[in-house]
Design brief:
Number of helices of chain B: 10
Distance between the termini of chain B: 35 Å
Number of strands of chain B: 10
Oligomer: heteropentamer
CATH superfamily of chain B: P-loop containing nucleotide triphosphate hydrolases
Strand content of chain B: 15-25%
CATH topology of chain B: Rossmann fold
Shape of chain A: globular
Structural class of chain B: alpha/beta
Chains: A alpha/beta, B alpha/beta, C mainly alpha, D mainly alpha
Number of helices of chain A: 11
CATH class of chain B: Alpha Beta
Strand order of the largest sheet of chain B: 6-7-8-3-9-10
Strand content of chain A: 15-25%
Number of domains of chain B: 1
Distance between the termini of chain A: 32 Å
Order of helices and strands of chain B: EEEHEEHEHHHHEHEHEEHH
Bound molecules: adenosine-5'-triphosphate, magnesium ion
Largest sheet of chain A: 7 strands, mixed
Chain lengths: ~300, ~260, ~270, ~260, ~260
């Protein structure tokens, strides 16, 4: 349904695909992979960034029975561009990048979302598997900031506009409370959620918008970070990272891939690997409408 | 035959290198050009093979104008004019042989020369040229490992290998010891005699000019102030070429301005 | 006396020129400094520095070798391969452009300005754009990384080459002109032998930069040592950062040793 | 007769074998590396049209972005200016210590070179993490990080230029009895100055392009806008930024050219 | 007084530059050293101010051994020995005045010299030295803009400004025209006479050596083969110094080996 004019390079993407289209003229508009290339960017809200490709490669290969190459990148643009050119078949995309890729390029179609445990106030994981996470605004424990209203006129460390947890959702709740994130507070744009936490710790920012719970990233450097900071507010749910495929992917294969990932998440061995390496606890089926909330937020922020 | 007609050269900074030079140099002559530093000797020599573009006038080599030549025809004309530079202009890091062979490039296909695939005939010619200047055994030595005199002889060998019909030599003996100087001059004389090659040579030393050349041209401030057989170049003539008494205060300052 | 008068005038002109330059520079730096404020050393300074130093003192040795792959040794090897092919690609492309940009090789400065402009253009292309372009062509991986590094280096290498050519002795070229050599022959006999040592050292320098270009390789998912390094820094695993940097330094030093030994024989 | 003499006097042609072997070894290394990373020229040729897709998205550039980003560009320029200046000052002692023809002590020179090598290996990401923690998320941290980064480039390029200078003036400074500092000031400095200046300006240019490092320490600058434009897949804005940078780079190049002409 | 005792120099590559040289040169002498290219003239000269470290023997300047001097004392000894190099060794990009002032550095505080803050006395001295060699008006010119002869005169001025007691000159007139050559030699003679400065000069040209020097030292293959007053240096003596007949085939080849 989402195959629009933006899908490029699907036919002559790789040598294999060229052969394949020749053989199956009838199915020319769907893509039946003979081997799969997966690219992912470890999501910002992973607490360990031990991003290895090989274990996932092996698991998928076992499940799908075809060659799988997994590739780790540090940038979402490359994932989207590679998908748009048919250079990769499956990409792990964060919500905002997925929406862009889907709406503007028609380069991606979501099939799964990763699941994680929820996070408690103190940063420890909850028992429930969820397909969303939260963003929060923290301040120093000894500061007089108690609620969102207190943030007026204060310096707040955000991430760049493209970051769901670091800007879009926090800006959303500020707007809900009639605080303009650009004019009513003094915004400081940082790169990396750890930078946000650090800025609060050393007093450069009064508060910081970070994913829950980015304090874990810096806990090695600052062991007392959980005592030294407090959570001022929690945002609404943010959808977890997607696993998307190129939209011309054969429907049968879409299902196959979905099943493969879900099973990996359920098997003991698979779970151990995806937990250790990607901080994922499993995968759940997903559809595009799950991301309407992202579109909403984007609009609200833009409209502001 | 080299003919210069009303040749003038004004450098971009306004310095007049040459002014209204009219000269005819016949085949087989051995011409020495003498003059003070800055008199225009190098400019004159370099105009002949158009390393310097003259501002007005015309220079003809064997009735063909080099001033208006270009591209292939200019290269072919240059092929027939060898030049020995005061500072040798060897590629120090290349072997002696390659430097000599570089004199043959205009005879060969570019591709071959670049990959050092010179015909055996050319290699033999180069080796013979080295033999003629007595440094054959240095053929595979890096040029940087030679003494000044030897480097000068390599550059002469390059000109020999070039089989040029005219040799222009710009102070080829500066900074050589008297023995080597004599050797280099003898070499040039030999080529001049044996192969009937025209030699035009800039010289600082009057006695060398008198000893070797058949004709002396005196330059002063870009103009010819003497032109005649070597035997007519008396001490008074040189006195005139070099301008003033040797005790004069500001010899160099003026010309530079 | 004539000479003292003109001497005085010269001195005056020089002084005026220098004063003007001084005023311009002073204004420039005042403007630049205006934005600065020094807040003193922060509370976070020591814990972070200490942890980083600790990480370097006790590097993550377990990362050196991992039977499954994706370890330091394989990362370095792959980075080495990318750097080697990348530098060869950039040399092939940068030499002609560098020669084009060298002022003393063309009669009209307009021509060399064209070359210089081309080099400037290549230098402004951000790595990430190159990465995107090539990932679209050959897919993610070492190949794309090599292309991005190779093309990305043209601007710098070409500039260094051109400056090397501009500083050479014009004599040998003149002598090839005088024997009737054409442009190519002038290059082969007069220019290249002279500038070769300079070209080689610029190339080695670039090769070394390629070895360290973790960021580009990380973006592209090139599989070299770049991605793990970036993740280690972002995840603040300083012991991992330590071992990777030590690995890079060791490889660069070894390559340095080998290349200077080789250079002595060739140059 | 000539030929027999030729043969007897001609030295043996030196064997080029080791040279050719070396060349072969280099070729094999490159070839194997290319195989290892699966660099197949054919794939490139076949798919190169994919690039056009991205290039088409860049065109036409969003000129208005140039206006939007001008304050950031000015910030970047001023931070690059200060960072380069500091780097230049620090690199002066380093480059002399690394030059074999200035300091004859092998120990001293080799140690300095290794230190410089290590310094250059520190990635900008790490520099950013360190200086952001020490000096805060501020332009100052960015400038210090840039200056460390600059030392590596300026010192490396300059010490190689120093090693290529003419030995004559150095000897004459020996001959007049100059001490080391005077020897450097009168013999070395005037000779390397044009190179040094051009390397400093080149580094200035790199620093303007190395905008990422400034973004990382929260110092803002053009890097933030690059990321933003990329994050929104607004490639027309990216192109506008590239062209903007190109203009700045060309201006610096022209200045560099003029200064070099003056000094050379 | 310069004394060389059993001085030998073997270069790292095995070439014997000097062999068992014993010489005493008194204050105020004007000594010319002549010899073939490669005979060791430059090596001898450069050993005296220790630009070349000798392999064995000892060299004393005014009874103080320069061979064993180091650091400050070596610098002070060198300050008193001026050197004129064959290739001028000026910093081309620096002004003439700065080049001349560089001869004064050893008299001044490091900091001041580096920032070009020479005492007025030194600047006057430098200007006077330039005046003496007749190029005062070029004081602020870049040295690269001078002709060869002028550059050589700058390097003489540097030595003058140095107020050296000994001047070593290595072929100072190579590649100069005869007028300038004479001028340079006259300058040196004048300094020698007026200031009682000892001059040791390498010369390629026998007639110059005879005309100007009080004493001639002939070197051949690193050994002294003649040492005596200029008037004793007959043509036969030179014939011996220069080895063999000028027609001899392989003059340079041998010495290089
Ligand atoms: N490229 C140039 N640009 C400007 N002026 C030049 C250039 N080359 C030479 N001149 C000037 O032209 C005049 C003649 O120079 P030329 O080199 O022909 O002299 P010369 O007789 O060869 O002197 P020398 O004996 O010193 O080699 C001089 O005044 C010199 O300064
Ligand atoms: N740095 C060096 N290393 C090795 N050998 C050298 C070095 N310098 C000079 N020689 C050799 O020492 C010998 C004497 O050289 P020197 O420079 O003293 O000769 P010279 O008499 O000054 O000759 P010229 O008239 O050519 O200047 C020569 O055979 C030369 O090749
Ligand atoms: Mg001349
Ligand atoms: Mg000598």
């Amino acid at each position: 349904d989402d195959t629009n004019e933006g899908t490029t390079g699907t036919d002559e993407g790789t040598e294999e695909t060229t052969e394949e289209t020749n053989e199956e003229e009838a199915n020319a508009d769907t893509y039946v992979p003979e081997s799969l290339i997966v690219q992912f960017v470890p999501s910002q809200n992973a607490e360990t960034l031990e991003a290895r490709a090989k274990p996932l490669e092996d698991l998928l290969q076992e499940q799908l029975g075809i060659d799988v190459t997994v590739n780790v990148s540090t940038n979402y643009n490359t994932v989207v561009e590679a998908m748009a050119s048919g250079q990769i078949d499956i990409g792990f995309l964060p919500p905002n990048a997925y929406v862009q890729a889907h709406d503007e390029y028609g380069a991606a179609e979501v099939i799964l979302q990763s699941q994680r445990f929820g996070v408690n106030e103190d940063g420890s994981p909850t028992e429930d598997l969820v397909d969303h996470y939260f963003s929060m605004i923290i301040a120093r424990a000894d500061s007089d900031i108690e609620s969102l209203e207190d943030l007026k006129g204060k310096t707040i460390a955000f991430q760049d506009y493209t970051s769901s947890a670091g800007y879009v959702w926090p800006a959303g709740i500020l707007l809900d409370n009639d605080i303009d994130p650009q004019t009513d507070v003094n915004p400081l744009t940082l790169q990396g959620h750890d930078a946000g936490v650090t800025a609060v710790l050393n007093g450069e920012a009064d508060a910081a918008a970070i994913f829950q719970d980015a304090r874990n990233v810096v806990v090695n450097d600052f062991p007392t970070v959980f005592e030294d900071t407090k959570v001022v507010a929690l945002t609404e749910k943010i959808p977890n990272d997607t696993i998307s495929v190129r939209p011309d992917m054969d429907d049968e294969w879409k299902t196959k891939i979905q099943q493969a990932f879900i099973e990996i998440g359920q098997s003991e061995e698979g779970l151990e690997i995806i937990r250790d390496i990607y901080s994922h606890e499993g995968y759940a089926e997903s559809q595009d409408s799950n991301f309407d909330v992202v579109r909403d937020y984007a609009e609200r922020i833009q409209g502001n | 035959m080299i003919e210069l007609k009303d040749v003038s050269k004004v450098y971009p900074n306004g310095v007049k290198g040459l002014e209204d030079i009219n000269l005819t140099i016949n085949e087989g002559e051995f011409v020495a050009i003498v003059g003070l530093s800055g008199a225009g000797k190098s400019t004159l020599l370099r105009s002949i093979n158009r390393l310097v573009d003259i501002s007005s006038g015309d220079i003809k080599i064997n009735n063909q104008s080099i001033t208006s030549a270009s591209g292939k025809s200019l290269r072919l004309m240059r092929r027939d004019i060898g030049m020995i530079f005061q500072s040798f202009n060897l590629v120090k890091r290349s072997s002696v042989l390659r430097n000599v062979l570089s004199g043959r490039v205009a005879y060969n296909n570019t591709f071959r020369t670049i990959f050092n695939l010179f015909p055996q005939k050319d290699v033999n010619l180069a080796l013979k040229a080295l033999e003629r200047v007595n440094i054959l055994e240095k053929a595979y030595t890096r040029s940087s490992e030679l003494s000044g005199g030897q480097q000068q002889r390599v550059s002469i060998a390059r000109t020999l290998a070039q089989e040029a019909k005219v040799i222009l030599a710009d102070e080829p003996t500066a900074s050589l010891d008297p023995v080597t100087t004599k050797q280099v001059m003898d070499d040039l004389k030999k080529i001049n005699k044996e192969d009937n090659v025209t030699v035009v040579i800039n010289l600082h030393f009057v006695d060398l000019a008198k000893e070797y050349s058949t004709r002396i041209i005196g330059l002063r401030a870009g103009k010819v102030v003497f032109d005649g057989p070597a035997k007519d170049a008396t001490d008074e003539v040189f006195q005139e070429i070099y301008g003033r008494s040797l005790k004069d205060d500001e010899l160099l300052g003026d010309e530079i301005e | 006396m004539k000479s003292t008068d003109s001497l005085k005038r010269e001195r005056l002109i020089r002084r005026a020129k220098y004063s003007l330059l001084f005023i311009i520079l002073a204004a420039l730096y005042t403007w630049a400094f205006a934005s600065l404020e020094f807040r003193g050393l922060l509370d976070t300074a020591w814990p972070v520095t200490k942890n980083i130093i600790n990480g370097f003192i006790s590097p993550d040795l377990s990362y050196i070798y991992n039977p499954q792959g994706e370890d330091l040794i394989r990362g370095l090897l792959e980075t080495l391969a990318i750097a080697i092919v990348g530098v060869v690609l950039s040399v092939i492309l940068a030499v002609p452009i560098g020669l084009w940009a060298a002022k003393n090789l063309s009669k009209y400065s307009l021509i060399s300005h064209g070359g210089k402009g081309t080099l400037s253009f290549f230098r402004t292309l951000p790595d990430i754009i190159l990465a995107l372009l090539f990932i679209k062509v050959v897919g993610p991986g070492a190949y794309a990384g090599m292309l991005a590094l190779g093309i990305g280096a043209i601007g710098m290498l070409g500039k260094l080459y051109a400056e090397e050519v501009e500083a050479m002795d014009p004599g040998p070229v003149e002598s090839i002109v005088s024997v009737g050599g054409n442009k190519l022959e002038q290059l082969a006999f007069g220019v290249i032998p002279q500038v070769l040592p300079g070209f080689i050292s610029a190339t080695l320098y670039r090769f070394e930069i390629n070895m360290r270009s973790a960021a580009t390789l990380g973006v592209i998912g090139a599989g070299g040592i770049g991605t793990p390094l970036i993740f280690a820094i972002q995840g603040r695993s300083w012991d991992r950062v330590g071992i990777i940097l030590i690995g890079i330094v060791v490889v660069v030093l070894i390559v340095d040793l080998i290349s200077s030994a080789l250079r002595k024989r060739i140059v | 007769m000539m030929d027999t003499k030729l043969n007897s006097e001609l030295p043996l042609k030196p064997s080029r074998l080791s040279f050719y072997l070396l060349l072969l070894a280099l070729f094999v290394i490159v070839f194997v590396s290319a195989l290892y990373i699966e660099a197949d020229p054919l794939t490139f040729v076949q798919n190169s049209s994919n690039m056009l897709d991205l290039i088409a998205r860049m065109l036409p550039p969003d000129w208005s972005y140039i206006v939007t980003t001008t304050p950031a560009m000015l910030d970047t320029i001023r931070m690059a200016l200060l960072g380069t200046t500091m780097g230049m000052i620090f690199s002066i002692p380093v480059m002399f210590l690394c030059a074999r023809n200035v300091f004859k002590s092998k120990w001293l020179v080799e140690t300095s070179r290794i230190a410089l090598n290590i310094l250059r290996t520190i990635p900008d990401l790490l520099l950013a993490a360190i200086f952001a923690a020490i000096l805060g998320f501020s332009p100052l941290a960015g400038i210090v990080a840039l200056s460390i980064f600059s030392i590596g480039i300026i010192a490396k390029l300059s010490f190689e230029a120093i090693e290529n200078i003419d030995n004559g003036p150095l000897e004459s400074m020996d001959a007049v009895g100059a001490n080391k500092l005077q020897w450097i000031a009168f013999g070395v400095v005037p000779q390397v100055l044009p190179h040094f200046v051009s390397y400093v300006l080149y580094t200035f240019e790199i620093n303007i392009r190395a905008a990422a490092i400034l973004g990382l320490v929260g110092a803002g600058g053009i890097g933030l806008f690059y990321n933003r434009a990329l994050g929104f897949f607004a490639y027309d804005q990216v192109l506008a930024l590239i062209l903007y940078t190109l203009i700045v780079v060309i201006i610096i190049d022209l200045i560099s050219l003029k200064i070099r002409e003056k000094l050379l």
